[in-house]
């Protein structure tokens, strides 16, 4: 199959390249519209109790004046002005009065008419230097209210230079998280692209060769965007998913391009410049490995489909589509380009980067020495490597699950500043206090409702439970709480309220509230509940695929086991670095004391494919050599020394893409994913692939390849298609 694919690419190169160019134009034109079709929501499991509570209250009562969406805080940091000063009042009321009715349904504040003195006190700080106003935004859902927030974000700020204005609430946090994610992505591209271009030139040793994987990445990204736009008509696709498209689209295109171009150059020399033969051999060996490797990455991404949050499934579809396009581009378009270029693949190569065919570099000799040492003394190498992985994974025992919220933004972000000022300067029960929503359906008896509210008030952490809105069919109760949404005490509060018996006459009681501890609890439980199923699917599917690829039982088992160990090490470092603050110094972020469990799920499912990706290129080369010689030890030594340099460079290029995302981010959520994925690649491309995998394969010996392929009449293993053209290249 793969030989025929290589020959087809050579014979139909012009048609393929013209079709690819036309596809990029059409995909770019259609896919560019995806930005306006994507969602900003999808962060919560749709069937969770908190989601059902919000949906019930929203559908029954609608979004009415008095429903708090945003809190605007006005303060004089010097303390010279107070709410009783006319200048303070004039500046704040002028800002609030100019808000358009098309975007804001209502606002309530210190100067609102009809408030009692006790009610007014809920809107002002103890010293009178700060006041808050609560805003009800116009919009039928989160997306529409977020759009309204964007329209009034600047207008609501006081013009008086002596006053500072800060905004908080669900739309504010989501607005800033989205803006920070987009800013981080743009910054990552600005940082990584110049570095990548230099590294690509050095790695590919020529401008023409270096440009090919970038073109493939662009093609894959455009194709993915086009498919994602179509998917927006079928399901909810989050705008955050584009980050996965960009990262994997470019990163894997570079990896696959490097492996195939390197192999093609070697085969071109080996076949005396015969482009057709070189291309057929390249696609039949490295191309085959790329195909299986890409499918492993797709399997990992499919694991995200097990998580109920729509944003998780958005990430899955974004990753799956772009990886599939990367595979197609690497197996069809790149070979066609190589067929058209032939020896000109080495064109525009600086003299200082040129290398004669067959040249053994110092780097190659170093990998050869390491390979010889690992195969000579596999036990200490394997034991040492495993101990390092286990030590790195140890912090997982300290894991405190959390959920992305305002605290994942920079410490000086206004969404962080407002809760801090409210806790420090405002009394309990203030108008901006965070609240849980309780939806009680059915004709509840008045006395039973009073008793129920008294029971809620008796739970530790609950403040001032009161009916917000009610009719004969549904009662909406607000319960105040203090502290963070992922504080264990607030999670316990939600559990205790849910454990209370329903009041007489009630048909059902649902506890929720946008951005509340109920959402955090439901998200944590949904994610941790789905994770074992996702891991089981990814692990078992990978076992089957690797068995088909290598015709072995132990190689797939070892690959999956080592992949999970490698992931455990990187996740342990994430917990130590972000939850415990180990990375705070160099990365400068606010330590929240929890780890976003959904970020961990994203890292696990994406990184599993990436770490298995590099092992497949190593094991694929070992497999070729073993089938050519039947000598397991020699196959490992040749495989490691022959692939060490190119896989390390591929890993370096991938780390640049991922680390740029993590290191340029100011949002802790984006930073965690970027750094976590980069750590996974670093650990795998160094310790795992260069030490643990070859040492384990050396100890397993010929059992690596049991039961093996069909036997020829001579009794020797019959070479499969992938190994029919043995070569000493990746």
From TrEMBL:
<keyword id="KW-1003">Cell membrane</keyword>
<feature type="transmembrane region" description="Helical">
    <location>
        <begin position="315"/>
        <end position="341"/>
    </location>
</feature>
<feature type="domain" description="Membrane transport protein MMPL">
    <location>
        <begin position="43"/>
        <end position="380"/>
    </location>
</feature>
<feature type="transmembrane region" description="Helical">
    <location>
        <begin position="379"/>
        <end position="399"/>
    </location>
</feature>
<feature type="transmembrane region" description="Helical">
    <location>
        <begin position="237"/>
        <end position="261"/>
    </location>
</feature>
<keyword id="KW-1133">Transmembrane helix</keyword>
<dbReference type="InterPro" id="IPR004869">
    <property type="entry name" value="MMPL_dom"/>
</dbReference>
<feature type="transmembrane region" description="Helical">
    <location>
        <begin position="638"/>
        <end position="662"/>
    </location>
</feature>
<feature type="transmembrane region" description="Helical">
    <location>
        <begin position="598"/>
        <end position="617"/>
    </location>
</feature>
<keyword id="KW-0812">Transmembrane</keyword>
<feature type="transmembrane region" description="Helical">
    <location>
        <begin position="185"/>
        <end position="204"/>
    </location>
</feature>
<feature type="transmembrane region" description="Helical">
    <location>
        <begin position="211"/>
        <end position="231"/>
    </location>
</feature>
<dbReference type="InterPro" id="IPR050545">
    <property type="entry name" value="Mycobact_MmpL"/>
</dbReference>
<feature type="domain" description="Membrane transport protein MMPL">
    <location>
        <begin position="471"/>
        <end position="713"/>
    </location>
</feature>
<dbReference type="GO" id="GO:0005886">
    <property type="term" value="C:plasma membrane"/>
</dbReference>
<feature type="transmembrane region" description="Helical">
    <location>
        <begin position="530"/>
        <end position="550"/>
    </location>
</feature>
<feature type="transmembrane region" description="Helical">
    <location>
        <begin position="290"/>
        <end position="309"/>
    </location>
</feature>
<feature type="region of interest" description="Disordered">
    <location>
        <begin position="710"/>
        <end position="730"/>
    </location>
</feature>
<feature type="transmembrane region" description="Helical">
    <location>
        <begin position="668"/>
        <end position="692"/>
    </location>
</feature>
<comment type="similarity">
    <text>Belongs to the resistance-nodulation-cell division (RND) (TC 2.A.6) family. MmpL subfamily.</text>
</comment>
<keyword id="KW-0472">Membrane</keyword>
<dbReference type="Pfam" id="PF03176">
    <property type="entry name" value="MMPL"/>
</dbReference>
<protein>
    <submittedName>
        <fullName>RND superfamily putative drug exporter</fullName>
    </submittedName>
</protein>
<feature type="transmembrane region" description="Helical">
    <location>
        <begin position="557"/>
        <end position="578"/>
    </location>
</feature>
